Amino acid sequence: MDEILIADDDAAIRTVLTHALTRAGYRVRAASNASTLWSWIENGYGDLVISDVVMPDESGFDLLPRIKKRRPELPVIIMSAQNTVLTAITAAEKGAYEYLAKPFDLNDLVAIAQRAIQSAKSDGKKAKPANNVNDDLPLIGRSHAMQDIYRIIARLTQIDLTAMITGESGTGKELVARVLHDFSKRKNGPYVAINMAAIPKDLIESELFGYEKGAFTGANSRNSGRFEQAEGGTLFLDEIGDMPMSAQTRLLRVLQEGEFTMVGGVKPIKTNIRIVAATHQDLTQLIRLGQFREDLYYRLNVVPINLPPLRARKDDIADLVNHFLVQAEKQGLGSKTFTPEAIHKLRELDWPGNIRQLENLVKRVVALYPQDEVTEDIIEAEIAHEQPIYQPHGDMSGNLLNLDNSIRMWLENCFDSQDILENDDLYRQFLTEVEPGLLRYVLEQTAGNQIKASKILGLNRNTLRKKLKEYDIEIVKISI
Ligand SMILES: Nc1ncnc2c1ncn2[C@@H]1O[C@H](COP(=O)(O)OP(=O)(O)OP(=O)(O)O)[C@@H](O)[C@H]1O
Ligand SMILES: [Mg+2]
Question: What is the mean pLDDT of residues 286-309?
Answer without folding.
Answer: 94
